[in-house]
Design a protein that fits this description.
Helix content: over 70%
Strand order of the largest sheet: 1-2
Largest sheet: 2 strands, antiparallel
Mean pLDDT: 82
Oligomer: single chain
Shape: globular
Radius of gyration: 21 Å
């Protein structure tokens, strides 16, 4: 295809994706109060690691009060919550448009992976966001609000809290796509599983660099919470890429 046709096709896919997000935003904004009530779960939940199944205990605790410090802060909070919710719900459409954009350059046997790609990409993002929301955020909030704060009273701005949670949720959702990216790279022969395994030490370094860049706060605690899943997902990606690599690639 000529470059102008590629750009036209890209514009079409972007418009469809944005249209899906825009329509769902109107729906989600109508329920932004209910969505926000769900979003304060990490403030009310306390996660403890135990040595018996299911190894995590989630208990309810008194939640810190949220305040808004500017007249429009509460309104912008509802807009952000509705937008991120609409973006997450639109992911199947966005992933489908991405696939349709790259599909003309794929072989017929490669195009059959459309449904597995769509399902896997959506599932991995959802699992990553849920893992962050249910496990990581409550653990992080409990630690950060309780670490050497005996003489301090937390007063959280609703805007800062929402930004903190949404950035973490989106970052973890994106990070959980790592195994799928590795599988595609190995499936199309761009890299080999053995190459990925040999460069494991560099992957660990990159994991901590990415964690430092993606976490909304500069403290080492949150960076470690994000770096460890990246390393684990990298190993999972190598494992599955060995299973699913093409027969002609033996690396």
């Amino acid at each position: 295809m000529p470059l102008t046709d590629h750009l036209s096709e890209l514009r079409k896919r972007i418009f469809i994706s944005l249209g899906s997000v825009g329509i769902l935003f109107l729906v989600c904004f109508n329920y932004s109060e209910q969505l926000f009530a769900i979003l304060i779960f990490p403030l009310r939940a306390e996660v403890r690691v135990v040595f018996t199944s299911p190894f995590f205990q989630i208990t309810e605790k008194p939640a810190a009060s949220l305040v808004f410090l500017a007249p429009a802060e509460a309104f912008w909070m509802h807009l952000k919550v509705a937008f991120i919710a609409s973006l997450v719900v639109s992911l199947p459409v966005i992933f489908a448009q991405f696939w349709k954009f790259i599909a003309p350059g794929l072989m017929p046997k490669e195009k059959k992976y459309f449904l597995p790609f769509l399902f896997s990409a959506t599932l991995l993002f959802t699992v990553g966001a849920a893992f962050c929301f249910i496990i990581v955020l409550p653990f992080a909030m409990t630690f950060l609000l309780g670490y050497k704060t005996g003489h301090l009273t937390p007063m959280l701005s609703v805007g800062s809290y929402v930004d903190f949670c949404l950035k973490f949720i989106l970052a973890f959702g994106a990070i959980f796509e790592l195994p799928l990216i590795i599988i595609f790279l190995t499936r199309f022969g761009i890299v080999t599983p053995s190459t990925l395994a040999r460069h494991r030490k560099y992957a660990v370094l990159v994991a901590f660099i990415l964690a430092a860049a993606l976490t909304p706060t500069p403290d080492a605690f949150n960076q470690i919470l994000m770096a460890i899943p990246i390393i684990v997902l990298y190993e999972i990606g190598i494992l599955f890429s060995r299973i699913m690599r093409p027969k002609e690639y033996h690396g």
